[in-house]
Amino acid sequence: MAGSSLLTLIDDIATLLDDVAVMTKVAAKKTAGVLGDDLALNAEQVTGVRADRELPVVWAVFKGSLINKLILVPTALLISAFIPWLIVPLLMLGGAYLCFEGFEKVAHKWLHDKDKGERNHQARLQALMQNRTDMLAFEKTKIKGAIRTDFILSAEIITITLGAVSGAALSSQIAVLSIIALGMTLGVYGLVAAIVKMDDAGLHLSGQASVIKQKLGQFLLAAAPKLMKFLSIAGTAAMFLVGGGILVHGIGPAHHFVEHLALKSEALPTWGAIVGAMTPTLINALVGIVAGALLVGAITVSGKLFSKTDAQH
Predict the structure, then answer these.
(1) How far is CA 277 from the centre of its chain?
(2) Can you list the alpha helix ranges (DSSP code H) found in the chain?
(3) Which residue has the higher pLDDT, 294 or 155?
(4) Whole-structure pTM value
């Protein structure tokens, strides 16, 4: 009897672990789109920090990110347990925010003076080089900004994960949310640390006697800024895809229409399978871009109206 109970317990644990693994994989796929932007934004946060202080700043932001997760994961579990109807609205809100932030990043390049931005950037660097800036205060500002950004992106990741496991048992929800939160925090800030030290590693290797090391160092020096640019572009594209996908999935008729259109596309001759597979992705991206444009436009117009009203008073 005891042996039978032990085997049953082991089987239950194995089933639970298998379910957790499957749900974690699904949640990771759904949240992966946010990570490119998270990675790029956090890597950009250490710009202007002295080379010998980059890793301490990343470590400080990492600890802040863990505190963010300690707040967000229990909050998400409480929502799932007591007000589960709030999950879908939160997902829609997060999707809308992703679309807004993605389009705002694109619009920023169109609407803002590039020369002015470059002048401000050079002025900050010059101030740092001449020690006119309080480095401790500068680092604290960078860290606070990075932790604030991490909180917003972490909330999106946790909300998307919660939506993926909302129908599961509480133990599975706890396991999946914890794995996603810890795994992605370690992954993102481990990569951030590697990226911000790429140029230092390249500089070190390029000064070595070995020709192979010199070539590798030159490659790293050339690749570091290109990698940052790629992450920024990929992160922006992912925001439209993920945000648009959340909005489409949250609106029943739109979701069914996309599924129907994908099935119709698969029936096309020759390229049907490829077109059918790409259709949902393209529609999600289009919805994300349109939603982002509408939100940015609405907020910009309302901001100008309020500023005029305040000026009149």
Answers:
(1) 24
(2) 2-45, 54-82, 87-111, 114-129, 135-165, 170-196, 198-206, 211-250, 252-266, 272-312
(3) 294
(4) 0.69
